[in-house]
Amino acid sequence: MSSLASTLMGRQLLTGWACADSTIRVVDPIEVRPDLVFVDNATGSWALVELQLDKDEVKRRRWPLAMAAMANERRIDGDLVIITSSAAVASWARQLCHARGPLGTESILRPVILCLTVRTAMRLLSTGAPELAFFAAWSANSAHGPRAIKVVEQAVVIIDREPDDLLRKRLLGSILDVLNEQLVAKLREVLMKPGKRIENPALQRLNEEYEARFGPALEARGEARGEARGVAFGLLRLLDARGFQVDEATRSRVNSCLDLSTLRGWFDRALSASSVREVFER
After folding, report:
1. Do residues 185 and 275 share a domain?
2. Would you say residue 25 lies in a domain?
3. Distance (Å, whole) CA 164 – CA 158
4. Within 13 Å, how many C-alpha atoms sit on residue 173's CB side?
5. Domain range holding 269?
6. Is residue 188 located within the same domain as residue 233?
7. Tell me: the pLDDT tens digits for 184-234?
8. pTM for the predicted model, two decimal places
9. 55 and 148 together in one domain
């Protein structure tokens, strides 16, 4: 093999190569779980679908394995479809799997990319289909301001028409899963604006879904923030009472700190410290 490759390719094989058992056994029980798998038992055709919010190097390494396993099982090649609302993720996915051996053997996996944008959102919303309205809402991540809010609102209205109660709730919950935190916060800000009445029942249900899912955690976070502010207020009062001059930078540092253990440590040291520096620089 070494002589053949050297003569025909003009390249030298790696030294140390020797014949080995040609039976290749795949025994490592690696489990690969794409988000969705579609099969057509009549034709044998199949496709793997990934709903990709961010870049994921672990998935990147395992997609070729999933494709090979499915092709071996179904005896026919299939497709890998990646759906995302991020242009950066779409660009990453387009060039994700390209392996090259030392002699030039290449293995390339170039998936089908469906990049959701506000432009595609309009096409999806125009169908009036609740399932496609979910993808339209997801595409709002690529927009900003009122335009993004409008897309989500229109999508929620369409989803609210779904007669299947379970599917409707799942679609609403899925919207909260795929929207970025900034957009969810902006949507909540619009819905919860003082004096604003949520006239659309669909938006009210989305807000209720949010409260049911995140309400307890938000309440706990609010309580912790309130306790931290109380300790910070007490610490600054203590420093003032002891006659220390506390500059604005230090006051800002104390007021912005939400870590209770840190605040309590400062408070305990302030009880006996001889200077402000001794309180904070340990």
Report:
1. no
2. no
3. 13
4. 9
5. 221-280
6. no
7. 777 766 665 545 555 556 666 776 666 666 555 545 565 667 777 888 888
8. 0.61
9. no
